[in-house]
Amino acid sequence: MYRILLVDDEILVRDAIKENIDWKSMDCQLVGDCENGKQAADFVKSHPVDIVLTDILMPYMDGMELSHFLHDNYPEIVIVIFSGFGEFEYAKKAIQYNVSEYMLKPVTAMELREVIGKMKEKVDLQRKEKKKIESLTKTSQDYHKNALVIRSKAIESLVSCTRDVQESLEELSGMGINLEAASYRVALFDMDLFSDIHQIDMEKRQESALMAFVLFNVADEIVTDRNAGIAYQEGNNRVCILFMGNRSREFSREIQEICQEIQKKVKEVIGIEASAGIGGWVRNPGDTIQSHNQAEKAIELRYLLGGNLLIDTETLNPERSISLQQPLSDMVDGIKKGNEAEMNQALSVMKSEIKKARVDKSQACVCLQMILRHAGSCWEALSSENEDLFHKREILMGRVTEQKTFKEAFKMAEDYVHEVFERCSSLNSSSGQKQAVLAMEYIRQHYNEPELGLNDICSYLNIGTSYFSTIFKEATGGTFLEFLSKTRMEKAKELLEQTALKNYEIAEKVGFSDPHYFGISFKKMTGKTPTEYAREKRSL
User: Which positions carry 4-aspartylphosphate (predicted)?
Assistant: First the structure.
């Protein structure tokens, strides 16, 4: 039976709903009808209610305030809101109060029966979840009264080396547990839903300990049947297995099969995926902490690879260094040339390389920050109007480190790269503007070559000198030689300010084969000789 409360300040509406619905045939009971939210709030304090049907506009306490009250005090009650046409968008704001359905007035009996049917299903689901939690709570309470807790704590102390190894072995021996074996390995199970890769509310956190008990029961049953080791709980949420036996290819394969069987069974029983990491072999019980730490590190790969993992550290390829220099360069080229395919290919390569290198979260975030910097520099090089993109990049530099998974963080960086691409493409919409931008970039890359000339640029762009001179002046306001000279002088200023190089050395580095001509050109542009400029800047 489903208990329904009707709330509406119009008595004719309440009477019409009461009389036109066959409540009994729907296995429902209309337990009350109230004319405002205040009456309804008082009613639910003393009467059990499953579903509330409420209008929005009412005196004393309206439907939104009632929904707020029910959300905070009776979250199990399912709420349906009636609203007039002008109130409909307002009603949608009630989503924050877990309102399940919105119905536009006038409501027909058929529409109401259909909605009530849906709400009954939601009530059933909530009742089922509540029953499951109550069952798990009782089982968990029983569990914490028996010796399994003591056993888990003793094995955890042994593996984590928080007690003397011999004391732990003697305690376990007193329980009839003999840990003598040729070799040992630790496997660690962690439920993905309750891990750091997901945002979970307080109710879920409380549920996690109960689900971990189910995971423990499954693992204990399977490992015991296989006579392969012993299961124990680690803290409230994790389950570990201490495998014991001969170090052989056959037993290693059996360990993987056992872990897969546990993952499959847990998924069937409680519908939750668990990731598992298997540490390497050790010969002594006192060294099992090494295997445990390897298993824990393997679990951390969830950040890169997602959940439902089974990672055997014995079969992993050795970690390798990662270099993103080439794909970063390709990404920048793709952005500047307007080649989206080249840019996307570079992003795909970097994503793959980061995953293959199995870097930890901090290293992965450094790589993502490099992608953001390089993308942002493309826009800065092409336009002085970069405040919004620069500000967004600075925000993203921090936000990528806050994401729970690499997938989410990479998507943020990828979206920023695409935004930069769109901006640059818009800026380069005309072919002349685009060629002028490419020319400026070419000059910035080759300014240190003494023989760099107009013909080199035109050959690179595959256009004539006259056409190039026209589009370049339109884009920059100056000639090729003026831009080249300005670029060289700016680089010379940097070297004079930041290094102790001789003037002839600086001349050579910025593309002047004749130091004397460099000095004349520098004074013409700055009003000072290179020596005077350096002395002035270095004395500041």
Answer: 55
How many CB atoms lie under 10 A from the CB of residue 134? 10
CATH tag, 147-312: 3.30.70.270
Residue 28's DSSP bridge partners are 2
- CATH number (3.10.20.30, 3.80.30.20, 3.40.50.970, 3.40.50.2300) of 2-134 reads 3.40.50.2300
CB 43 within 8 A of CB 32: yes
The per-residue DSSP string of 187-212 comes to EEEEEGGGSTTS---HHHHHHHHHHH
CATH topology assigned to domain 431-538: Arc Repressor Mutant, subunit A (1.10.10)
Q: How far apart are CA 500 and CA 110, in angstroms?
A: 88
> Before 106, cis peptide (omega within 30)?
yes
Radius of gyration of the chain (CA): 35
- pTM above 0.85? no
432-446 burial, b at 16+ Cβ within 10 Å, e below that, comes to bebbbbbbbbebeeb
pLDDT over threshold 90, residue 404: no
Structure confidence by residue, pLDDT tens digits, 505-517: 999 999 998 989 9
Report the C-alpha dihedral over residues 96, 101, 107, 113, rounded to 10 degrees. Answer: -150
Give the Cα separation of 496 and 97 in Å (integer): 65
